[in-house]
Specification:
Elements lengths: L9 H6 L8 H10 L6 H4 L8 H6 L28 E5 L2 E5 L26 H13 L5 E5 L8 H12 L6 E6 L1 H4 L6 H7 L5 E7 L8 H12 L3 E7 L8 H13 L2 E7 L14 H14 L7 E5 L6 E3 L5 E3 L5 E4 L5 E4 L2 H4 L2
Parallel strand pairs: 2-3, 3-4, 4-5, 5-6, 6-7, 7-8
Antiparallel strand pairs: 1-2, 8-9, 10-11, 11-12
Length: about 350
């Protein structure tokens, strides 16, 4: 469905033919709770109301149902926020949330209660307090710029941030997390790419994509602009029911990343964000999919399957494990076909 502008209301979605006119009233209740935005780059990929692209961006009345386990701050950002805009959960790295806006509003977003077009950007005195915190905390080696989507910032603001971080000697790595190169590739301008390289830090971009079809020619050009400028790219995806929870789709997605010089990094188990239970898979299903990838996909294309432990306890890999230790201490290693092999005991492998 080709559109020229971003679709932001149920009426917009109906006019573009993305939803039926009979759905508008019901989806207005969803729109009052969670922001909507479907960029032209994504709306043109939507062929059916239930396809993998539509499911990610088109609101659904199931979002109005919150289950008892779901929470407004599923990964516990607030518990680790010493000053506005900063999340400092791990000793050597901190997040800075520069904007609350995004080019699209993903229906499964773990920060869906905080993001939206009306949210204020981090500016003025609040930005100065965030900068002072990063300056004082000399154990911070890496700053992760996030939001919302930080590629919504102008190139001028990106440059200003990179200059400030460039003055902090202890910060060696700056990582930007974004969906922009995929969902609104025209925003990746030469000025933005130049701004990212200011400040002398190692710059990484964490690129969020969930389905191989998202790699349009325009997206691939935007990604190439970043890669050609010497910016390292890593992937992040969310494992989502009805979008990518099958081995063929996941393998194709990981290959698309690698073909575009994006190193597969994280496959996130979906967080307990409100109104997202229709996207959730089980950990068992996720582990089975990872086992299938291990059997069929280049090592270059293997992401780490991770869970953010609800409540702010951090991110951990959740398998699968290919090792098992029996009660007698014997170690069994399972191969890609599921066959277990006894690994020699420690005494026989050391001189
Ligand atoms: S782009 Fe990221 S922050 Fe924005 S809605 Fe999607 S997942 Fe959430």
């Amino acid at each position: 469905m080709t559109t020229r502008t971003t679709l932001r209301t149920p009426a917009d979605l109906a006019s573009a033919g993305v939803i039926g006119p009979d759905q508008v009233v019901a989806l207005e209740a969803v729109a009052r709770r969670y922001a909507i935005a479907v960029t032209p780059a994504m709306s043109k990929l939507i062929r059916r109301p239930d396809d993998a692209i539509a499911r990610q961006f088109v609101p659904d009345v199931r979002e109005l149902a919150t289950t008892p386990d779901e929470r407004t701050d599923p990964i516990g950002d607030a518990a680790h926020s010493p000053v506005e805009g900063i999340v400092h959960r791990y000793p050597d790295r901190a997040l800075i949330k520069m904007v609350h806006a995004c080019p699209v509003y993903c229906r499964f977003c773990f920060r869906r209660e905080m993001v939206g077009p009306g949210g204020a950007a981090l500016t003025g005195a609040a930005l100065e307090r965030a900068m002072a915190y990063l300056q004082d905390q000399t154990g911070i080696w890496e700053v992760i710029v996030t939001g919302g989507d930080p590629f919504m910032l102008t190139a001028r603001r990106v440059e200003a941030l990179m200059r400030r971080l460039g003055e902090m000697a202890h910060i060696r790595v700056v990582r930007w997390h974004t969906r922009v190169p995929i969902v609104d590739p025209a925003r990746v301008s030469p000025a933005l790419v130049r701004a990212l390289r200011i400040g002398g830090k190692a710059v990484y971009v964490g690129l969020h994509a969930n389905h191989p079809e998202e790699f349009t020619p325009e997206a691939e050009t935007a990604i190439a602009m970043l890669a050609d400028a010497g910016i390292a790219l890593v992937s992040q995806s969310v494992l989502l029911k009805g979008v990518n929870n099958d081995a063929v789709t996941l393998a194709a997605l990981m290959r698309r990343f690698v073909e575009n010089r994006v190193q597969p990094y994280y496959l996130h188990h979906p967080d307990l964000a409100p109104g997202t239970s229709h996207f959730r898979v089980t950990l068992d299903e996720g582990q089975a999919l990872m086992t299938a990838l291990r059997g069929h996909l280049s090592g270059l294309a293997q992401p780490t399957y991770v869970l953010d432990i609800p409540g702010g306890h951090g991110k951990v890999p959740v398998g699968p494990s290919f090792l098992a230790t029996a009660s007698d201490g014997a170690v069994h290693v399972t191969d890609r076909k599921g066959v277990a092999h006894l690994y020699p005991p420690k005494d026989s492998t050391t001189p």
